[in-house]
Design brief:
The complex is a heterodimer of chains A (540) and B (166). Chain A has 21 helices and two strands. Chain A is an all-alpha fold and 540 residues long. Chain A has a two-stranded antiparallel ribbon with strand order 1-2. In chain A, helix 5 packs antiparallel against helix 6. Chain B has 166 residues and is mostly helical. Chain B folds into two domains: 92 residues, Helix Hairpins; 53 residues. Helices cover 77% and strands 0% of the residues of chain B. Chain B contains six helices and no strands. The longest helix of chain B has 33 residues. Classes of the chains: A mainly alpha (540), B mainly alpha (166). The interface between A and B is large, with 36 and 39 residues.
Chain lengths: 540, 166
Amino acid sequence: MSALVPLLVIIPLVGAAITLILGRYRRLQIAISVTALTAVTIAAAVLLAQVDSTGNPIVVKVGGWEPPFGIVLVVDRLSAIMVVVSALMLLGVLVFAVGQGLADRDRDTPVSIFHPTYLILSAGLFDAFIAGDLFNMYVGFEMLLAASYVLLTLGGTGARIRAGVTYVVVSLVSSLLFLGAIALIYGATGTVTMALLSDRIRELPLDVQVILCAALLIGFAVKAAIFPLSFWLPDSYPTAPAPVTAVFAGLLTKVGVYAIIRTDKLLFFDVPLTIPLLIVGGLTMLIGILGALAQADVKRLLSFTLVSHIGYMIFGVAIGTELATGATIYYIVHHITVQTALFLVVGLIERVGRSTSITRLGGLLKKAPYVAILFFIGALNLGGIPPFSGFLGKVGLFEAGAESPSPLVYVLIGAGVVTSLLTLYALMRVWNMAFWRPSEDVEGYESPLIESLQESPDAVNGSTTGVGVATRTSVLMVGATTGLIVMTLCLTVFAGPLFELAGRAAGNVATPDSYVDSVFPGGVPSDVSVGGPAGSGGAR
Amino acid sequence: MNASITLVVLMAVMYGTGVYVMLEKSLTRILIGFLLVGNATNLLIFLMSGRSGSSPIIDGGTADAPMVDPVPQVLMLTAIVINFGVTAFILALIYRSWWLSNLGDEGDDVIAGEEEQDAAEADQAHEFHQSLEGDDDAVRAVLGEGSGAGDDDDDEPSEQERDVMR
């Protein structure tokens, strides 16, 4: 079983190499990348089943080196869940992208580079999820970021280069912060292996712990787009091609959230983070959703709701009980799925309606009833309407909050409810304008609803995004989107078992000792002075 | 942990100047800032290894010379490689944005339609050539047939002109 763990990273990387060589053979490229991601999905599912049945994390010592000296890969329930969900998303979006390429007859996508880059992004993502030491996690982050730079500026049009510059510079700064934090942690403890850090960090004075934790958190918060550090996101995501935006929105921010959960629960469990995280989480929710209300462009609107809903996850992390962590994990899974699906639906809307601005869309319910149904389900789900998983996730979070009551938590629950309603409002306005409004009414339409809306900055000179945009949709595109929407429904139908699974994963996460024990079965090596000036330990 | 004060000061200066330069608008300066901050971070990792100490036990004994902790150097090496790759990408980004701001989107058509343009240019050159010959004939007609030397004089600048136009 443990042989499957490195395959999660190796398969996509080998696939990337092969697809790069086969740049001229489009069909072979497609076949290889689909096969690679399918294989990873299966491997991840097997791992999840295995980890969940035994309850112990699977530890792989890469190259046979013992943990504090070599690299370890650790798959516990949380990692396995994240890998399975992201592999499914990557596969779905890949099918959509292939469909889009076929629908365009490959005229506008002259990108033999897409498949290799996409696979490297996957490899980096999986590496970050299963990394057992901080530096390996950094390397995983860098892999996926470097690939994301290329995907975001695909084709190199003016708008994408502009958006790309913002994104690249912000990501670089956050990576350097992360790297600096790793250096400081190494200086203080003499190791980067997370299991050993878990043991050593608790021996440090609390003020040192707080500084190290803050340094790491700031790096991750930029990636996860948490409030004061979130302004880069809505400016950079919407300009990319629809499938790329969908992957970024669904997965890249969640890697940051995953890293926050991991470091918070495994390394810095002594640091009192509840109050600062609660405040930041609340502000992320409210400011994000207020930004969404002002947008006319559906892609930008969804980017803002993405920022806003990161706030829920931070809320869950902040409460920090086992129940809250379980609800957070469920919410992350829900949000990855529904956000990716909605961005794909917008990709379809863009093609059917030739625009993504709700001031110009209209009559889509008649023109494309099937797309309308897909959007409606996704929107209700994101907005948190009762039967759907969005509602269940939020209820789980609020319940966890109510069980560890404090005035601030109740304020946050209130903020969460308001955010949820405003999300619903923003999405239903899109529904009213784009789907329900007859297309004859679009010219000269006046309504207080859309009076003060902000167009996306890139739409200024192009007037519509859709003039040159291809209008075909293919069966594959619609099929992939349907698949993801069905997955969000499955999250609802199988919410019971999934919530239990998330709860068990949270149980793992809440007891760092089980993680440490599985990496060091014979106990933590206390007198091994890896790193630091030899013989003098490290911490001062 | 002991650390060389020179390196600490150097790191601080690089961080300071790097952040300052990064705040500029120009992409090239951002790149320079990124390089400075990136290398300052590498120095930070290096500083975290402290001074050299007694060497590890290998084959039952230790080497006589003191050794420095190798792990931060490995981390640095990885970070340098990553920074190198990212720098290459930013350079490409800078070139592309320079291209777009100077030539606009039409710049791409120049490359894409280069062959067509070459053909069109060849046609133009041919027409021009012919018109020049026509001019020559007209000049000859005006000057009259008698002056053979003037004929040569006329030919030469027109030959040069053709080269310039090509």
